[in-house]
Amino acid sequence: MSRKRQPAGLPTYDILMKPVVEALIALGGSGSIEEINGKVFEIENISEDILQIPHSEDGAQTEVEYRLAWTRTYLKKYGILNNSERGVWSLAKADITPDSINSEEIVKSVKNKDGQLNITKEDAVKALEEPEQIELIDNWKQKLLNVLFTLTPNAFEKLTQRILRESGFIQVEVTGKTGDGGIDGKGIVRISGLLSFHVIFQCKRYKGTVTPSQIRDFRGAMQGRADKGLFITTGTFTREAIKEATRDGAPPIDLIDGELFCDKLKELKLGIKTKQIEDVEVDAEWFNEF
After folding, report:
1. Any bridge partners for residue 190, and if so which?
2. Distance CA 104, CA 70 (A)
3. Tens digits of per-residue pLDDT, 19-50?
4. Which of 23, 112, 162, 199 is the right S-S partner for 39, CB 3.0 to 4.6 Å?
5. What is the mean pLDDT of the chain?
6. Phi and psi dihedrals of 285, rounded to 5?
């Protein structure tokens, strides 16, 4: 079977190792996945066309994002990166520099640790060109997104309503009127019991990306009707859409993409169950006292 050709300009996960370290240094040594990815896109000047290439047919994650997930995992296994339970990644040591990153050495070392002890040069080159899938921390998110994609638009709107209520919103209503500029609902969020903001939201249950024009259309529909806008999608936002949402002089719009949506469901324990694994160790020396 012939190897699938990759578009020109699509970086492999090993090429992204140095940019990831550069991004973390620029971010002060730590950052969220979104912050790191965004900084890498800037450093490498990756075009929008390349950034929108989907990893798989469901389009839940782009190919560049998926490869960056591999990059972080390899760097973590090699001891260059750490990550917390809250999804923040950081440099393991303050003196790590991009010039110290040897991607070929990292790949070989990690694969050796994983039991692949006899890697030939040909195998290593092939791995660099077409990375072998390794276990990723966020596999559960892909499964969850696949479930969300099966929901009807009405069911997804109700799920969004439930999330907002669980997050502290009050008077949350789902409108979903045709021709209403994409507005799906509204609610009120209170801060410390003192301040309140009227929020209008739009929720898109689909696998694609949200464009700047969709953000502008939503902003036009919300003006004069709310203090804040909230755009929720199971997909992703283009870089230009993110910039448009926070454009100077325009009413700001908060964005929730598919990954953040999954995190929120997990945090609120809505349809997500977590299990704690008990690790039992036997202290053989203790029994020597008898």
Report:
1. 196
2. 14
3. 999 999 999 999 888 889 989 999 999 888 88
4. 23
5. 83
6. -65, -30
Please list the residue range(s) of the chain that carry CATH number 1.10.10: 17-135
Domain range 17-135, CATH architecture: Orthogonal Bundle (1.10)
Average pLDDT over residues 148-159: 90
DSSP track, the chain: -PPPPPPTT---TTTTHHHHHHHHHHTTSEEEHHHHHHHHHHHHT--HHHHT-BSSTT-SSBHHHHHHHHHHHHHHHHTSEEE-TTSEEEESSTT--GGG--HHHHHHHHHHHTT-----HHHHHHHHHSPPP---TTHHHHHHHHHHHTS-HHHHHHHHHHHHHHTTEEEEEE---TTSTT--EEEEEEETTTEEEEEEEEEE-SSSEE-HHHHHHHHHHHTTT-SEEEEEESSEE-HHHHHHHT-TTS--EEEE-HHHHHHHHHHHTSS----PPP-----GGGGGG-
Domain(s) of CATH 3.40.1350.10: residues in the chain: 144-268
Q: Rounded CA gap, 290 and 72, in Å? A: 49
Task: Pick 58 or 62 by higher pLDDT.
Answer: 62
Distance of CA 38 to the CA centre of its chain: 11
| Cβ proximity of 258 and 60 under 8 Å | yes
Which is more confident, 2 or 106?
A: 106
Least confident residue range of 11-25, 93-107, 173-187, 212-226? 173-187
Which is it for strands 81-83 and 88-91: parallel, antiparallel or unpaired? antiparallel
Residues in the chain, total: 290
The residue whose two tokens read 């669980």 is 166
Average pLDDT over residues 185-195: 83
Under 8 Å between Cβ of 212 and 176: no
Q: If you classify domain 144-268 with CATH, what class do you get?
A: alpha beta
